[in-house]
Amino acid sequence: MAATGLVDSVLMATHWAFVRPLSKQYPTCQFVAHPSCLQEDAVWSTGSMMGGFDALLEMLARDRGDAFAQLCATHLLISAPEKLTPILPGHRNHHDDAILRLQEWIESHHAQAITIERMGREIGMTERTLKRRFQLATRLSPTVYIQKVRVDQAKKLLLATDLSIKAIAYEVGYENVSFFVRVFKTHAGATPSEWRKGEQAGSL
């Protein structure tokens, strides 16, 4: 794509190992190491295999809505339940490296108690700066992002396991089951039990 001259001055994602050689070979293009995907104008680029999934889900989210893209991610990307990774279409299309690192950290620590203070320590940012940059990059507050990660993980466990709602609440980071149910309903439009029954009925 870079050789065509059609993406001159367009910021494009690539693997970190290729940033320097590509920049040297195509000096009119801008390359950045990015673990997910970037979109600028009509150009999509990815820096990893999973970035391709992120780009696909982002396109689905824009065309059919975030709920549909989330459902596709839930159904298509399930492998071993213990290795399920939350995928949130539409919230990685940025190039703030610190926030991308924080998003990855949140997704791998979502079952733990996560505070703004702890997140700030992880990436060396004040709480005020973290909140501002996170909102600017992802269009979500850190708190809402954590909730979405946990709900996304809960959906996968609801589909892939027979765990009780209480057990799933604990698995995704909630000790208060009633609060988990309220958060889940806020983001999914149904309680965990209702959502599981609906998905199981739809797959028959």
UniProtKB/TrEMBL annotation:
<keyword id="KW-0804">Transcription</keyword>
<keyword id="KW-0805">Transcription regulation</keyword>
<protein>
    <submittedName>
        <fullName>Helix-turn-helix domain-containing protein</fullName>
    </submittedName>
</protein>
<dbReference type="GO" id="GO:0003700">
    <property type="term" value="F:DNA-binding transcription factor activity"/>
</dbReference>
<dbReference type="InterPro" id="IPR018062">
    <property type="entry name" value="HTH_AraC-typ_CS"/>
</dbReference>
<dbReference type="InterPro" id="IPR018060">
    <property type="entry name" value="HTH_AraC"/>
</dbReference>
<keyword id="KW-0238">DNA-binding</keyword>
<dbReference type="InterPro" id="IPR020449">
    <property type="entry name" value="Tscrpt_reg_AraC-type_HTH"/>
</dbReference>
<dbReference type="Pfam" id="PF12833">
    <property type="entry name" value="HTH_18"/>
</dbReference>
<dbReference type="InterPro" id="IPR029062">
    <property type="entry name" value="Class_I_gatase-like"/>
</dbReference>
<feature type="domain" description="HTH araC/xylS-type">
    <location>
        <begin position="100"/>
        <end position="198"/>
    </location>
</feature>
<dbReference type="GO" id="GO:0043565">
    <property type="term" value="F:sequence-specific DNA binding"/>
</dbReference>
<dbReference type="InterPro" id="IPR009057">
    <property type="entry name" value="Homeodomain-like_sf"/>
</dbReference>
